[in-house]
Amino acid sequence: MPTSRLEAFADGVFAIAATLLIIEIHLPGEGEVGEELLDLWPSYFAYALSFLTIGIMWVNHHVVLAYTREADRIFLFINIFLLMAIAFVPFPTALVADHITEDGAREALLAYGLTYTVIAVFFQAFWQYAYRRLLVPDADPREVAGINRSYLPGIPLYAGATLVSLVSPTAALFLFAAIALVYVSASIWVRDEALR
Questions:
Q1: Radius of gyration of the chain (CA)
Q2: Is the pLDDT of residue 192 over 70?
Q3: How far apart are CA 179 and CA 155, in angstroms?
Q4: Which of 22, 54, 55, 122 could disulfide-link to 82, CB 3.0 to 4.6 Å?
Q5: Considering only 9-18, 77-86, 88-97, 179-188, which range has the smallest mean pLDDT?
């Protein structure tokens, strides 16, 4: 089957997951509005980090499908599991926003990290299956090699940051932010390298 239906469904899931993130940022209560808005910084940070990461995954999902000639049944199911994990992102994001400055921060960051580690596993399976079985015949080998290089560290990076959360939730949160920035840079770098 063509990948267009898969991509349309995936776009809907990505859009809903990204939109649900904002629901966890609540309006200020009865106190001083300015002070309460400042007190919501964990919600802003968690929202921005998760939205950026979902955006990166959306871009990478699109890139994989651009190199995929068709979708077979196995590929569709790998995609379903990937999207199921992505749709779960608002839950650990809300946990992080609610608990990063108090008790439960370790458990919240552990849930956050495990979610992204599972996503990284499914994303690697999604790309590797497309790369080995469904690649378009005219795929630029330099771009394909760049995609392979950029996707390989995902699982160890997320797993490592998740383990750090057991020792320092704050350090883990900054590691997750650094991973997102690395992947933004890698996406741009892979494309620029291929065009040279």
A1: 18
A2: no
A3: 11
A4: 122
A5: 179-188
**Residue 138 CA: distances (Å) to CA of 72, 95, 144, 147, 157:** 19, 44, 11, 15, 31
Residue 109 has pLDDT above 50, yes or no: yes
End-to-end CA distance of the chain: 33
Q: Which two tokens mark 127?
A: 């790309």
Model pTM greater than 0.70? yes
Nearest CA-CA partner of 23 in 47, 40, 58, 54: 47
121 is written with which tokens?
A: 């596993």
CA distance 118 to 124: 10
The predicted-structure confidence for 75-104, as pLDDT tens digits, reads as follows: 999 999 999 999 999 999 999 999 998 889
What are the tokens at 161?
Answer: 């940051």
Asked whether the beta carbons of 14 and 57 are under 8 A apart, the reply is yes
CA atoms within 13 A on the CB side of 83: 18
